[in-house]
Amino acid sequence: MTSDQKAEMSRRHAVALGAAAAVAAHSGQSEAKGRTEAKALATASAKDLGLKPEGLKLLDARMSALVSAGKRAGMVYAVARGGKLAVLKAQGWRNLENKVPMTTDTIFRIYSMSRAVTGSAVLSLIDDGDLSLDDPVAKFIPDVAHMRVIREVLNGVVTATAPQESPMTIRHLFNYTSGLGYAPAWPTGVGIQQRDILALNQTTAEGIAKLTKYPLLWQPGAKWRYGFHSDVLGRVAEVVSGKTLADLVRERVTAKLGMTDTGFWVDAQNQQRFADVYRMGPDGRGDTLVNGTALAPPSSSYLNPGTFFSGGGGLTSTAMNYLRFAEMLRQGGTLDGVKVLKPDTVKAMTTNTLTPAQGGEVYWNDEYAIDIFKGYGWGLALGIRLPDAQAPTPHTVPGTTGDFGWYSLANSVFFVDPTEEISAVALCHYQGPGEREIGAALRAGVYAMLGR
């Protein structure tokens, strides 16, 4: 750990200590002063929403067990049915060493849960007619037209490439079949570095310009692969709108939904609510939680305004903020009378786009399916639960055909079940083994509340 990283961790701990004295007895009470309160959902009792109390007890018990067993420092989870908030609860610690309690307004890095928010901002431009899913990406980022496709590799060295058979389109970026991956997917001889593409000391335009210097892994449309797609979408949105992605996401999504705690950095007056990140041992493979904030991947500037905005992983948010976003999608693009997306756009976003030839099933950053997303396809920046008969591998968690959601690098997760009128979010700051546990606990509790 560098001296700068140690200094930053010490500063964060000092802020956390200051916050501890101000923590209210009610976990949902905000400690921040002088800020605009984020909008909440109307509340209702579990009974009025047709939810079984034994399911809520199971949800609480599963989450509490993760904390008491030392597997997580803490988490916040929220569940709504029919647009009414049924559950909003914090368990454990925002800062474990100093015993700063987790509160329901704690702010988290949401990493890949940023993708659906970025996707919604870009889709709103499509709704307005400013671009089309079938537009070539090179119309907005000309160098994309010159990206060749790897045809042959020998001992990690690319020995032959070919031109794009059909141009990469906005649709390819949305359904993750553009030919891009993350840096580890490329042959070693290519030399692409993840942190170089996503470096924070550059603009979004500069980062994506670097990416266009490398060859594509496959022909556009050929194969699904997790990767830089949403970051490129963010740059397209900047070109189309003439605004930074940070401004566009705020204007098109978060401000409309009252998501005042969601953005690419946390304002100074709210940093006391920003949770630390934990891992198992210094090397990530131990059996005791240690503070890993300084080692967590920096997908955003986090504590101050930046210039690089990762559409694939840069946002921070709270459970209630993200639940409002999930509810907007569940309600077809509108929440509290404010429209973010057209209903047909949300339908397209939440419909599986993958064919068996493209892979059929999604996975997380490598060629395996995370347990909670086995049997899921992909829509437009979202995972979609496939019917049992179409799922390449069996589902391992309860759900309903067509439910949708996604996961984050720091172990947060959300899903929406339109059939059951459920939206659910669990936010956590943990990186290490047991990546399925939060998602599995959330699903088990929610479907037990539904009697399933």
List keywords for this structure.
11 helices, Beta-lactamase, three-stranded mixed β-sheet, eight-stranded antiparallel β-sheet, single chain, about 15% strand, about 450 residues, alpha+beta
Written overview of the protein:
With 452 residues, the protein is of the alpha+beta class. It has a domain at 3-105 and 316-449: DD-peptidase/beta-lactamase superfamily (Beta-lactamase), CATH 3.40.710. The protein has helices at 3-20, 53-68, 114-127, 170-174, 194-197, 204-211, 229-241, 245-254, 319-330, 343-349, 437-449, and strands at residues 74-81, 84-95, 100-101, 108-109, 149-154, 157-162, 278-280, 289-291, 316-317, 334-335, 338-339, 376-378, 383-385, 404-407, 413-417, 422-428, 430-431. An eight-stranded antiparallel beta sheet has the order 3-2-1-16-15-14-13-12, with helices on both faces. It has a three-stranded mixed beta sheet with strand order 8-7-17, with no helix packed on it. It has a two-stranded antiparallel ribbon with strand order 4-9. A hairpin with an 8-residue loop joins strand 7 and strand 8 (289-291). Helix 2 (53-68) packs antiparallel against helix 11 (437-449), helix 3 runs parallel beside helix 7 and helix 3 packs across helix 8 (245-254). It starts with a helix and ends with a helix. The model is unreliable at 1-36 (pLDDT under 50).
Measured as a percent range, the helix fraction is 25-40%
Q: Going across the biggest sheet, name each strand in turn.
A: 3-2-1-16-15-14-13-12
CATH-wise, what's the superfamily of the domain at 3-105 and 316-449? DD-peptidase/beta-lactamase superfamily
* Average pLDDT over all residues: 91
Radius of gyration: 21 Å
Low-confidence spans: 1-36
Structural class computed from helices and strand pairing: alpha+beta
The CATH class of the domain at 3-105 and 316-449 is Alpha Beta
Instruction: Characterize the overall form.
Output: globular
Query: Major sheet: size, sense and barrel closure?
Result: 8 strands, antiparallel
Helical region count? 11
Q: Supply the CATH architecture of the domain at 3-105 and 316-449.
A: 3-Layer(aba) Sandwich
- What distance lies between the first and last C-alpha atoms, to the nearest angstrom? 47 Å
What's the helix-strand series?
Answer: HHEEEEHEEHHHHHEEEHEEHEEEEEEH
Strand content: 15-25%
Fill in the CATH topology of the domain at 3-105 and 316-449.
Beta-lactamase
